[in-house]
């Protein structure tokens, strides 16, 4: 194995350097290549002879996967892996991995930050001051946070961390997750309709699947309080963007704070950009200097483990081993 050269292709990356990956790969003879493209045809050419792929946001389609000649693993830089065709990967005998625990604190903190900014009308007040006004009325109405209800949809690592932070702030926390029925936290499990009807803030922390795609749409917004806010740090397509625009533009809900969008990035003329009761951040909830380094290292470690004959720490298609 010492003399074999392994070709590892990074399909696309927002990271400033590949230093962290190169440090992990030092013990093997690895040819690390950055393709920096999301174009399917370009990716097919760049990856066809790769032993491993490392993927950020590029869609790894069946067509790309079936064109791979010797790939052993597709490693995702991130928690979600909805941009990888897992069925195709499994059928082709290729392992897929993610990094499920690298940004739990960052994303849950970002969700709470969006919640607080919406609740305290920070952006409206800031705009008012910059427009040479000086009045609290620019933010009305603002309500006391303590004792309000925070609804969490999806009680995975990040949802749990967000619930924990919410409890610390004095929120009553309700949870909807059809796959979880118990938590050591002081939360109340309930149905989706009750959560939407009774929550002052609804925070999304579920993965993007066919089951959750557009799970928050026109009907769901109508079930929410007119004073409620939606927070989304999960995946953009969990929310129907047209329904979101309609709910905000017609004041069906009070506002929203989102870190993920559909499409992503938003086009420059997208109507969501025009709304004053919407706070948008550019899919940055995951980011801290600490989490970025850990993400690069753990994604590379998953690849290293497979190239050495093992399996990744977090294998998302375990059936490939059967």
What kind of sheet is the major sheet? 7 strands, parallel
- Oligomer status: single chain
The separation of the N and C termini measures 25 Å
The CATH topology name of the largest domain reads Rossmann fold
- Tally of DSSP helical segments: 11
Helix and strand arrangement:
Blueprint: E1 6-10, H1 19-24, E2 30-34, H2 40-47, E3 52-55, H3 62-66, E4 73-76, H4 86-91, E5 95-97, H5 104-119, H6 122-130, E6 149-153, H7 157-168, E7 172-176, E8 187-189, H8 192-198, E9 201-204, H9 218-223, E10 229-232, H10 241-249, E11 255-258, E12 278-280, H11 289-307
Parallel strand pairs: 1-2, 1-3, 3-4, 4-5, 6-7, 6-9, 7-8, 9-10, 10-11, 11-12
Helix pairs in contact: 5-7
Keywords for this entry:
single chain, 322 residues, alpha/beta, Rossmann fold, 2 domains, 15% strand, elongated
Description:
The chain folds into 2 domains: 6-102 and 289-321, NAD(P)-binding Rossmann-like Domain (Rossmann fold, 3-Layer(aba) Sandwich), CATH 3.40.50; 104-280, NAD(P)-binding Rossmann-like Domain (Rossmann fold). 32% of the residues lie in helices and 15% in strands. The chain is built from 11 helices and 12 strands. α5 (104-119) crosses α7. The chain is elongated, with a radius of gyration of 22 Å. It starts with 5 loop residues before the first strand and ends in a 15-residue tail after the last helix.
Gist?
With 322 residues, this protein is of the alpha/beta class. 32% of the residues lie in helices and 15% in strands.
């Amino acid at each position: 194995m010492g003399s074999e050269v392994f070709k590892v292709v990074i399909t696309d990356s927002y990271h400033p350097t590949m230093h962290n990956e190169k440090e992990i790969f030092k013990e093997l003879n690895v040819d690390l290549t950055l393709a920096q493209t999301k174009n399917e045809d370009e990716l097919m050419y760049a990856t066809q002879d790769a032993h491993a792929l490392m993927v950020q946001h590029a869609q790894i389609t069946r067509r790309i996967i079936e064109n791979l000649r010797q790939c052993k693993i597709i490693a995702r830089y991130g928690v979600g892996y909805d941009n990888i065709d897992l069925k195709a990967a499994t059928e082709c005998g290729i392992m897929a991995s993610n990094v499920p625990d690298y940004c739990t604190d960052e994303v849950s903190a970002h969700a709470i930050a969006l919640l607080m900014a919406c609740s305290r009308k920070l952006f409206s007040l800031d705009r008012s001051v910059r427009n040479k006004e000086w009045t609290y009325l620019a933010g009305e109405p603002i309500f006391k946070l303590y004792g309000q209800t925070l609804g969490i949809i999806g009680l995975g690592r990040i949802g749990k961390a967000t619930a924990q932070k919410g409890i610390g702030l004095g929120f009553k926390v309700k949870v909807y997750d059809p796959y979880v029925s118990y938590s050591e936290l002081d939360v109340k499990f309930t149905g989706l309709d009750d959560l939407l009807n009774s929550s002052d803030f609804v925070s999304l922390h579920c993965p993007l699947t066919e089951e959750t795609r557009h799970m928050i749409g026109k009907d769901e917004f109508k079930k929410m309080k007119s004073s409620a806010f939606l927070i989304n740090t999960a995946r953009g397509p969990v929310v129907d963007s047209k329904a979101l625009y309609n709910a905000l533009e017609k004041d069906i809900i009070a506002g929203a704070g989102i870190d993920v969008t559909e499409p992503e990035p938003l086009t420059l003329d997208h109507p969501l950009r025009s709304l004053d009761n919407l706070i948008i951040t550019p899919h940055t909830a995951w980011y801290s200097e600490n989490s970025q380094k850990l993400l690069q290292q753990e994604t590379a470690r998953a690849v290293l483990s497979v190239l050495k004959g093992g399996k990744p720490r977090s294998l998302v298609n375990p059936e490939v081993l059967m």
